[in-house]
Amino acid sequence: MATLAVFALTACVQTAHKTTGELKSGSENRRIVLMPVDIELSVLNAGGVNEPRADWTNAGREHVRTALAAHTAAFEAEIVVPDNSDILDDLDKEQLQIVKLANAVGSSILLHEYLPQLKLPTKKDQFDWTIGPDAKLLKEKYDADYALFVFLRDSYASSGRVAVIIIGAILGVGVQGGIQAGTATLVDLDTGQVVWFNRLARASGDLRNGDAATETIKLLLTEFPT
Q: Are 205 and 179 contacting, i.e. CB atoms less than 8 angstroms apart?
């Protein structure tokens, strides 16, 4: 839930940070490995606590997988899917740790790149983030040039929460409803450097719906380097 708190602190707009407008090619055909999406859908109860819903998460994962496949098909690159799986927990331990590391770096980027008061002095004039040398494990396993990591959280207000929101509005008190939050992180597998990063934070969207999930992925991958 710490990551959701970071999103809540940032303005509900979508922007992109990137260090390159063009991707290099390590071979004749550029290859991007699309790591399984870290996704969770939940219901926001009356007390403001997110309660994960496995059925919603499973539906959202399927819709996002389909949306990603369709969207990335237009990239000037060969898209590789790890072991034909879209389930994060199906990865081996080493790959799972790399995904968790990439998401942790994404949380740091959210804090220090999107909140001016937390901007790091050493990164003031540059976008310089890395997941470290372990990135080469993915390069060797998939013969890929880059890896794309996607993190998504979507919450929906329960009827009880909606009632609290209405009462708050009557009393002149703002009460947070559900939010849709996500990050997309593209990593150079030769160096471990984050070469492109985007975030999404808003109070709309619904990953339980196929068309809406397609719109979310299109927005999250806006300005993806080609």
A: no
